[in-house]
Specification:
- Pfam families: NAD_binding_3.
- This is Acetaldehyde dehydrogenase (Acetylating).
- The protein is α/β, with parallel strands linked by helices.
- The chain has one domain: 3-Layer(aba) Sandwich (Rossmann fold), CATH 3.40.50.
- It contains five helices and five strands.
- The protein has a five-stranded parallel β-sheet, with helices on both faces.
- It is globular, with a radius of gyration of 14 Å.
- The chain starts with 5 loop residues before the first strand and ends in a 13-residue tail after the last helix.
């Protein structure tokens, strides 16, 4: 069944997450449920707050929303984040929410920009 609106949360609000957030915030078919990052002053966190979008430093806040989230976009580049999200989905029985990896985001942004976009991640761990 086709969707009219996508309920999305973004994990990671730095150099990779911010350009994605720009696109998501302007899409009338996206309900941005929130943005998570350890750095409350990351560019995407500031952008989200300026547009009235919820922010948190605990990415699991969005996983705990269960099936109220259609897509969790992880652009942290941290394997432990992906694993924690996958484990939570398995443990909670959530077969609805999709977890999107930063490689898919790189592909989407590259297609939109008409050129290969390089992702940048710090070594910071969650």
């Amino acid at each position: 069944m086709a969707k009219d609106i996508f309920r999305i949360a973004v994990i990671g609000a730095g150099e990779t997450g911010t350009p994605l957030l720009d696109k998501l915030l302007d899409a009338p078919f996206v309900e941005l449920l929130g943005v998570a990052d350890l750095d409350t002053e990351a560019p995407g966190m500031r952008l989200a707050r300026s547009r009235g979008v919820a922010t948190t430093t605990d990415f699991m806040d969005f996983a705990r929303l269960g099936e109220a989230v259609d897509v969790l976009i992880d652009v942290t580049g941290v394997a432990a984040v992906r694993e924690a999200l996958r484990q939570h989905m398995q443990d909670s029985g959530n077969h609805h929410t999709l977890i999107v990896h930063e490689t898919v985001v790189q592909l989407m942004l590259s297609l939109l920009g008409g050129r290969l976009v390089q992702l940048k991640h710090s070594v910071e761990d969650y």
